[in-house]
Amino acid sequence: GAGVSQSPSNKVTEKGKDVELRCDPISGHTALYWYRQRLGQGLEFLIYFQGNSAPDKSGLPSDRFSAERTGESVSTLTIQRTQQEDSAVYLCASRPGQGDYGYTFGSGTRLTVV
Amino acid sequence: GQSLEQPSEVTAVEGAIVQINCTYQTSGFYGLSWYQQHDGGAPTFLSYNALDGLEETGRFSSFLSRSDSYGYLLLQELQMKDSASYFCAVREPRGANNLFFGTGTRLTVIP
Q: Cβ separation of B44 and A59 shorter than 8 Å?
């Protein structure tokens, strides 16, 4: 597609439930990132995928968080047993390959845990 | 570890020039990037500096001084639509592959 697409755009869930967030990167972009942004805060790195290499999971805050990506296509971020502290906007970004700039972000999924 | 410092808020008048500063501390340096984010929107890439000096893109310019661990984003001929948050970002040291973002500067442009 023309841009990075994320779904759903908004998600309200009850504490303790699992949620799955989806990201469709730009076609041909080998690198894909997930970030979390709490209200009024900066972007917090969660996980990075590059092609078929093992993902960099160093930013995942707990074992309740996991993510998958099949090849160079769609990625899903799963949060198990959600907590109120998980409420944030989850942003996905992709870029063509190695490099320090030019990330294209999606509009994010706003997650609210009640 | 990484740290980035930016002013939290800046207010400027339409048509004026504004400079948003960013100082950084990193264990390795691979360039400074700037992103713009409107409320409720996606961050969008503005500019990137790997070497010292000024990079100009239309009304926006970005400057880097590696010896001072300092950079800034310069916005000229401010427009109301420039009201947004602006983030500087550095790449994590070699071996990691993500951008580390500052907490952002909220720019408000007033008439």
A: no
Return the closest-CA partner of residue A61 out of A49, A50, A75, A45: A45
A80-94 average pLDDT score = 97
pLDDT of residue B40: 86
Residue B79 has pLDDT above 90, yes or no: yes
Residue carrying structure tokens 């942004």: A37
> Alpha-carbon distance B40 to A19, whole Å?
21
- Above 60 in pLDDT, residue B7? yes
Torsion of CA B27, B33, B38, B39, to 10 degrees: -10
The pLDDT of residue B80 is 97
Interface test with B, best of A33, A48, A100 (most B CBs within 10 A): A100
The pLDDT assigned to B95 comes to 54
Cβ of B31 within 8 Å of Cβ of A100? The answer is yes
The values of phi and psi at residue B19, to 5°, are: -120, 130
